[in-house]
Amino acid sequence: MKRFSVSALALAFALLLAACAKEPQVSKSGSDQPVQSASVSAPDAPAEPVESVRARLSELHAEWQNWPELAEREGYVLCSGRPVNQDGVERFLASYQAGEPASLTVLSYGSTIPMVYQIDFDGQGAMCATICKGEGQFEEAESAGVYSRATDYVFEGFGLVVPKEEEAERSELDAAPGEQLLAGGISPERAVQIARQANERLYAYRSAGDGAGFGARGVVIPDSIPEDPGPRADGIALDYRPAGGERLGERPCYRVETYREGEGDAYYDVLLVDARDGSLVWTIEMVNGSAVPIYDADQTYITCPAA
């Protein structure tokens, strides 16, 4: 009988220990909340095969006429015409800046051929993009950063521009050449100076062989180009003249025209300068008359810690 009692007690004690082992741990701080164990990262998931990525992008490209609907339904970023799901870009860039893995699918069409961008960031180094330009037409590219301007995001190295706002319509302001547009804004003389500086820096950048082609919407003048780049490589000296004003969307702007000697009254370039503070400059495309941003005094460069 005594032997049975000891065995029973031993069994009960073992059961008690097993039950205690299943109870959640209690923090030493006295809190009733259980201590959370450190999360263990799962093994890295295998990268999606290149063939699979390209097949998926080809399917999206084939549907390009339905992209507005796809963007609304699937959450893709549409960056032409009107920006759709721009918050997706902002979330991606926040992760990129924090060094956290993220992906972004962008559908782009408009003045260029339709293109699909699959942008991936693994938490270190550069962003990588697979770009589909049509059936069987793919490019791979890398980018170390994104320029954030008042009007758009420019993904360096991808040739990708995601607008922050709809493309603004141009309308003429009733203002004579050299007339002050805003009482608290910059003077027309200052606007001409800013237009000259931005345009000559842009020319110097493109002439160096590193810039985007003429008419490209994603050109950003790097800080390495001096404020006074000196004489143009083509030997042309432009005359910059105030030519009244325009309204670009809600922004009143000075219109500045450039002229070359011996060409009469035909202007060469048209630039618009934000009349409020001169912080933004656009050049006007000769083909379709749209305004292309070329200068933003307050632009920022977004990169990741490990880039």
Automatic annotation (TrEMBL):
Source domain of life is Bacteria
Q: Where is the composition biased (Polar residues)?
A: 27-40
Record keywords, A-Z: Signal
Q: Where is this region: Disordered?
A: 27-48
Q: Which residues form the signal peptide?
A: 1-21
State the protein's name. Answer: Lipoprotein
